[in-house]
Structures are given as C-alpha cells and as structure tokens.
Amino acid sequence: MSAELISILVLAVVFVIATTRSINMGALAFAAAFGVGGLVAGLDADGIFAGFPGDLFVVLVGVTYLFAIARANGTTDWLVHAAIRLVRGRIALIPWVMFAITGALTAIGAVSPAAVAIVAPIALSFAAQYGISPLLMGAMVVHGAQGGGFSPISIYGSIVNGIVERENLPGSELTLFLGSLVANLVIAGIVFVLFGGLKLSGRRGEPEQKEPQQTEQEQQGQKGQKEKDERKSEGQRGSSRLTPAIGATLAALVALVVAVLGFDLDAGLSSITLAVLLSAVWPDTSRKAVGEIAWPTVLLICGVLTYVGVMEEMGTIDYAGHAVGDIGIPLLAAVLLCYIGAIVSAFASSVGIMGALIPLAVPFLAQGEIGAIGMITALAISATVVDVSPFSTNGALVLAAAPDVDRERFFRQLMVYGGIVVAVVPAAVWLVLVVPGFG
C-alpha cells in the first residue's frame, strides 16, 4: 500500500476514534501526524510542523480573547441591542444583515477569514441572546463572506482571475462573481428555512428595558423561560448605557476593522494587541477572558490541519489530483476535481486548493469538451462554499466565537452540515455550470 493511501486511511481512523470515544480530534491528529509523518513519510519534526497553522492559531486565540473581554464588559450586549434598534425589532432580518455585512466586506477586499472574524462573534452573541440557532447564524455569516468573495476587486477573485490569465484560459470575472454570489444566496436561503428562520418572522426584539412588573408577570406565566428572560433583561440593562469600558471596546473593534481592511494587518495579532490594551486599563472585567479562549477548539483545528499539512508534504493531495486528471473522461474528471476541491478545502486553504486544481484541469479544458468559464466557476464555488466546515478557518472561527453553547454538539452540527455541503454542492454546480458547457 502506498504512503499516500496510508495517510488517507489514518485520517479516516482518526475521525472514527474521535467520534466513538469522545477524544479531542486535534490531539489524535497530532499523534497521527507524528506516526505517519515520522514512520511512513520519514519526516523529521520540522517537516511535521511545517503544516502547523500558526497564523490560524493566533487568529483563533486573538479573536476569542478580544470578544471574551467584549462579552465581559457588556459590549456585545450593547451591539446586539443596537442591531435590534437598527432593524426596528425584526429579529428575522438580523441573519440576513450579517450575511450582507460579511459579503460587503469580502467584496471590497477583505480576506474571508478576516471578515468572519469581525462579524461572527457579534452575530453569534445575538443568536445566543435571542435563542436563534447558532448553526443558522454561523452559516449565514460564512456564506455571506463567500458570496462576496469573488468580486473583481476581492482577494479570492483577483487570485483566481490571475491564475486563469497565467494559464491562458478564457475567463469571465462577472460570471465568477455572480456564480458564487447566487450559489451562496441559494444555500443561505435553504439554511434560513430549514433552521428556524421562518419562525423568527413573527418575533420582535424589545430594544427598551422592560418594566420590573412586566418581567415578574412573565416569569410567573412562563416558568420555563425564567433564566432566558433574566439573561435578556440583564443584557438590555447593560446595553442601554455606554460606559467607558464599552466605548473603549467599540473603539478597539473599529480599530480592528481599520487595521485588517485598511492596512492589511494580521487579524490575530491585531486582536491580541487590542485585548491586552483593554486588559491593562480594565483588569477586573478582563481577568477571566483568557480562560474563555476556545482552547479545545484551538487544539482540534491546529491538530487536524497539522495532519493535513503532513499529507501535503507527502504528496497525497497531488497524488489524488493527478489520478483524477488522468481518467480521460472530461465530464467525470470535472466532477471529481470539484469533489476533491471541496473535500480538501474543508481542511485546508481554499485559495491553495484552487491554485493547484485549476492547472490540473488545463489538459482536458484544452480539448474543448468542457467550457473553461463554467469549470473554473464550479471549482471556485466547490472549494470555498465548504468553508462552513469546522476544520476550515471560517468554520473554526464560528465554532470558537459561539457563546453559551455545547461546543461538542455544535462541532458535530457544523461537521454534519459541512459534510452535506461537500456531498451536494459540487454535483449541483457541475450540473448547472459544467454539463451545459458554459464558456
């Protein structure tokens, strides 16, 4: 058995053990990286750690640290309160507002993980306070980011269009952008319907503090909702006034946006720096924030991505891609490449996967049986729409940012949802964009 096949089988075993034995998958993946990398591939420690996602580690720690402080001093409650006032209490609009904000950020040039890092903690805090499915809210944020991610001036769009030009392939910037936008809008609409979005249409948030007598009456009449009502009332009281700590934290969030979007600074390092500054001024409210960093999520994501890095060092990804490219049946090769892009991108860099797969498609695109524009658009969508996976940067940020949730349960929900997206979307975009022969 080849080393590449062994690495794939070991990854499957890691999934099975983590699921059946409730062991942190990241810890298992680190052990697997050591075993497969050292014993099968002959890699030394430097080779094994070459795939360690140091940048993602810092982003996860920095963002969850900063927003743990924001939750502790009441800033997230204040923002949720402001969002309710903005939409005049219509809770059903908030998921779509979050979709639009992240889409706008990526469309004007923000890297997708940076946009998600900025929006997800606020969106998921809102979801926790108003009883909205965190899966619904998280998916809306990620799909919004991918919906705007291929505009002609975006990072993803510029990279893919550059690859197309370098490979002398026909391309259409507008088709690429609109294809991704429509695909993500359709998926977001389906998610909104399936995960309780329609039920939100009859609910209205109360931006103003309720009178004490009303609260007591509600508690007497709705005993099962007592804790939730108390939490909401407390959040509204805290969000009704702008304290110095909240003002400074809001300024820090604005500074984060400016640093990431305006000066292209690292989101993780910027977040940690701002969190440290806030902690130095208000140590009492920030003392517990370090303990609220999503350390189990950090271990899980970093472990799995380190193992995927070992697979890349071994050549497993190239092995699979070239095997597909040699099939000789263009339509079958096209759908398999879309699936490889989706599966691998669920664990690795979407841009990196597109950069590897588009050149692999060149030989059968040159035959003229497959439309280049449709194929490239399908590959781009397949490789990015799966970023809802908890192993991708965006999915990991959503998982880490969700407050007051059972993280193991939420992780499983994201993993199942990501699996469904991987199973369905590549085939769908292949049927719509590749089979008709666009381009």
Q: Which structural category do the helix and sheet elements fall into?
A: mainly alpha
Helix/strand order, N-terminal first: HHHHHHHHHHHHHHHHHHHHHH
Shape: globular
Q: Which stretches are poorly predicted, pLDDT < 50 over at least 5 residues?
A: 207-239
Average pLDDT value?
80
Number of beta strands: 0
Number of domains: 2
Instruction: Give me the oligomer status.
Output: single chain
Strand count, sense and closure of the main sheet?
A: none
Would you kindly provide a written description of the structure presented here, covering whatever features stand out?
The structure is a single chain. The chain starts with a helix and ends in a 5-residue tail after the last helix. Helix content is 74%, strand content 0%. It has 22 helices and no strands. This is SLC13 family permease. It comes from Streptomyces scopuliridis.
Which properties best describe this structure?
single chain; 439 residues; mainly alpha; 2 domains; 74% helix
List the helices and strands and how they pair.
Blueprint: H1 3-21, H2 25-40, H3 45-49, H4 54-72, H5 75-86, H6 94-107, H7 112-129, H8 134-147, H9 155-166, H10 173-194, H11 212-221, H12 226-239, H13 244-262, H14 267-281, H15 283-286, H16 295-314, H17 316-325, H18 330-345, H19 350-366, H20 372-385, H21 393-401, H22 407-434
Helix pairs in contact: 1-2, 2-16, 4-7, 4-14, 4-16, 4-21, 5-7, 5-12, 6-7, 6-8, 7-8, 7-21, 8-10, 8-21, 9-19, 10-20, 11-12, 13-14, 17-18, 17-19, 18-19, 18-20, 18-22, 19-20, 20-22
